[in-house]
Amino acid sequence: MQIRFISSRPADAAALVLPVGKAGIASLGDAGLESATAALVRGAAEGARFDGEPGTIAEIFVPQGNGAARVILLGTGSGTEQDLERAGGALTARFLTAGIPALVIDLSTLSTAGATAVARLLAAAEQRSWRHDVYRTRMPASARPTLERIEVVGAPEGIDAAWTDAKALTGGLALTRTLVSEPPNVLYPESFVERCRHLEELGVEITVLDEAAMRDLGMGALLGVSQGSVREAQLLTMRWNGKGEGDVDVAFVGKGVTFDTGGISLKPGAGMEDMKWDMGGAGAVAGAMKALALRKAKANVIGVCGLVENMPDGNAQRPGDIVTSMSGQTIEVLNTDAEGRLVLCDAITWVQRTHKPKTIVDLATLTGAMIIALGNEHGGLFANDDSLADELLAAGKATGDKLWRFPLSPAYDKLIDSPIADMKNIGGRGAGSITAAQFIGRFVEPEVRWAHLDIAGMVWADKPGVAWDKGATGFGVRVLDRFVRDQFEG
Ligand code: BES
Ligand code: MN
Ligand code: ZN
After folding, report:
1. Which of 85, 95, 128, 267 is least enclosed by beta carbons within 10 angstroms?
2. Does the pTM exceed 0.90?
């Protein structure tokens, strides 16, 4: 779907969208319609009890020539960025497969909304049209998207810059959603890397470590997870140097388990297919790097994806195995299904030694316990630094990628002590998400500001959301993009 800015409302628009705020339909006046048509629209809107609530829609057919055209009233509520985003998403949700190729949206009535807010409405409209239909070869015509473009009249000043940034985010989200949606026979560590190669054309530097390289570096924790799989593990690094040479502002590290069977600690069969999206953290990192590159962010950012497949096999790691991580710390692997932390710990050690970031944010679909605690409304945030936590919470709130902070403490940390090695890879029954975070924290250098986002409940949705359909949400991309903008691009 395409969004185009045009200078005046075409006289023969077959579908005209008019935003209506909380003040209701009365505030719309004639909206440039003939007075009889305007009266019809007002009457129909009242009859349908349309009141301008954000994301609500009233569709009214009006006479035009010998036929009919649609006037679509789009509720924009109080006109906040969040309300406008909801409106944009709702518009596409309603008309994506409705049989019309184009909508004209006249923003003149939204005179108080700034460029950023309007860009957000339009970006949500575009993002909501994202689908992954590549494997549907027999899709009935009635299910196919028909909406090809939205033409925008009356956009506010400054829309060009705001739109460039919003489109960058949309591009990043699309990459993340594609990576998350692809099936695990298609998306595995090496093909994940290939799907990120195009970032080089945007100026992102890519380096990849294969298993031999990781073995030389002593990444026994990550490699232990991979050893039951015929797929070769990869450590993918993407570097965006928007400020030019110099210090790394922040490193993002993503869990990229392209399929998590649990390994020898095998998961139950029901619902195991969900574990194709156990690479959602890595997917978010890749999408965020793409968004930063597309909008040429003035920041130096590293994105690292630890990519492995967790399979049971004659060569798979066993419960009870002790592995040595790149940091030198030894780990008793009591449950091969607690594999994400084993992947992240080596990726984090590597990025600290190689790139010396002062701030690290890792993202992972790390624990089922996170979903028990927060459901599908917030990602869990864990941090060793209050200001970093606050920065991420604020970025989450501003973008809709909502986060909720959890505690870390020496008392929790003790729960992963092992009698035979430096630590074990699981705690007890309680506080499963926290002990997982404590585990990762043991690999973070004391002077590094570090946050861990457990996004297990957020990367995949069973029902449509503001700017996404059921399925991959792209969670993480917005909050990372915003965090970089607010903290490092000043
Ligand atoms: N990838 C899973 C966590 C997960 C579960 C994400 C369900 C999304 C939905 C992770 O690797 C895992 O299996 N964690 C275990 C840890 C346990 C063995 C300590 C879990 O949460 O059960
Ligand atoms: Mn697991
Ligand atoms: Zn996992």
Report:
1. 267
2. yes
